Amino acid sequence: MSLGPFAGFIWAAYGVTALVIAGLIAWLIFDGRRQARALAALEKLGIKRRSE
Amino acid sequence: MRMTGHKPTLLQSLANPTRFMALSERVLPWLAVATVVVMAIGLYQAFVVSPPDYQQGQTVKIMYVHVPCAWLAMAAYLTVAASSFGLLVFRHPLADVSARAAAPIGAAFTLLALVTGSLWGKPMWGTYWVWDARLTSMLLLFFLYLGLIALRSSVEDEAAAAKLTAILALVGVSLLPVIKFSVEWWTTLHQPSTRFTTTLDASFRVPLLINALGFTLLFACLHIKAMRNEVMRRRVRSLQLMAVRQASLGGQPPARVS
User: Fold this and answer.
1) H runs (alpha helix) in chain B
2) Relative to the CA of B127, which of A6, B37, B139, B215 has its CA 20 to 30 Å away?
3) What angle do CA B105, B118, B47 make, to 5 degrees?
4) For chain B, how long is the longest CA-to-CA vector?
5) pLDDT tens digits for A19-32?
């Protein structure tokens, strides 16, 4: 597949998009794990919400 | 007096964070699979099916990421604004969670729209950047997102921060019509808005629509995941406060949980 004389611009556009999306996904997954760990640690101490 | 049975609307039933967490836990994996499938089809359409444009050549492929990112930059802002309205008017328990979760994702898509637009502009216009109305208003949208994020983190009282951010978000809505109609109101280097059925041939329209759907599904996934994280973060904070209260009543130092 030939992308012509401006292939570098096309790959750069797709590359930066993939990088930013991957960064967002990684941040959300790590943040979710961190919150879940903190929640589990608090509940292990016997601290629970009133509704539980 | 006996209360009569009241069936909550879908929005009311989703207002409960616990119900939202249970529902989103079931929906998110399916949504993620649908996103991966549609985005893979979109990439195939962009790189294999789509022909080169008679003027732009292969750089038309940049349009398949640039247009969805630009559309999501504005759609994410509408999400922030609608959620802010929900917080200020209806005091919807998940409204602020939604607004806070959408802002950084919207900022990321705005940045992508600006960068991919520049990467298209250099080979087509001969320059990465011009201070024309469309480009400048998109840059302002990016700064507005950053302003919302900065304002929220600069106010210690979370309830006050939520209200202030919501007001700024609603004021900022006035930027959206400026972005949308900038190419008609002023003479710009940026081309007019794409009319999907009249100005775009089907060989470009189909890949663009599939990519737009894929990116929209991606935004839905990221937003739901960010909302789930925010609900958990608020639960952690309220449990930490309870721990401090219990410790001060019982005379024991609170255990540190990061």
Assistant:
1) 10-14, 17-44, 60-85, 95-125, 133-154, 158-172, 175-185, 202-250
2) B215
3) 80
4) 77
5) 999 999 999 999 99
Q: At B232, which amino acid appears?
A: M
Domain boundaries along the sequence of chain B: 11-183+200-250
Say whether residue B123 is in contact with chain A using an 8 A CB cutoff. Answer: yes
Q: Do B58 and A7 touch, CB atoms closer than 8 A? A: yes
> B229 and A35 in contact (C-beta within 8 Å)?
yes
- The structure tokens listed for B36 are 């991966």
- On chain B, the residues whose CB falls within 8 A of the CB of A15 are none
- Write down the number of H helices and E strands in chain A: 1, 0
**What part of B 47-86 touches A (C-beta under 8 Å)?**
47-48, 52, 57-59, 61-62, 65-66, 69
Residue range B146-185, pLDDT digits in tens: 999 999 999 989 899 999 999 999 999 998 998 888 877 7
φ, ψ of residue B53 to 5 degrees: the values are -75, 150
**Residue B177, helix vs strand vs coil:** helix
Distance CA B61, CA B44 (A): 11
**pLDDT tens profile B19-46:** 999 999 999 999 999 999 999 999 999 9
Q: B198 vs chain A: nearest CA distance in angstroms? A: 26
| Amino acid identity at B179 | I
What is the least distance, in Å, from the CA of A24 to any CA of chain B?
8
DSSP 8-state symbol, B9: P
DSSP for residue B184? H
Q: What is the pLDDT of residue B233?
A: 95
Using a CB-CB distance cutoff of 8 angstroms, which residues of chain B are in contact with residue A35? 229, 232-233, 236
pLDDT digits (tens, 9 = 90+) for B83-94: 999 999 988 889
Query: Can you read off the two tokens belonging to residue B218?
Result: 């991606």
